[in-house]
Design brief:
The structure is a single chain. By secondary structure, this protein is an alpha+beta fold. It contains two helices and nine strands; from the N terminus they run αβββββββαββ. The radius of gyration is 18 Å and the shape is flat. About 20% of the residues are buried.
Length: about 150
Amino acid sequence: MFRTAIISLSLIFLAQVSVAATSCNSFIQAFNEYTQKVEGKIVKKHSIFEMTDWSRNSRFQGFVLTEKAPANAEVILESKAGGKTKAMKTVAKKTKPFAQDNKYRVVEMDLEKQLASAPTGSGSFIVRVLADGKELCAEKRLIYDDGD
């Protein structure tokens, strides 16, 4: 009995470690584009950063695939928020070069449409990156109403 409990706990721990090891940071990042005044001129700039939770104050506009993501990578976004009983799912198989930094590819997906530009409830979303039918990573983040 005791041995079975130890084995079960070990398997649970290993499952949690393997989920944590599937972080998508090396394959997919979030991005934001903005303008800034530099030496008296308005210049277009961008930021690339790890995915964050989603709220009306989220600063990311979309996803970019990194150099480590295979050329045939596809991105699946599943979201469930605002008391909906069924999750929304979008599959993006197309990317385009990121104009401001050619080492990234923009995932053609409308985040505000799927996640809501101003969430009025809570929920979550999962981003999965696949290639050749194999899941490379999956990452879960929260959706929440921050009230601002």
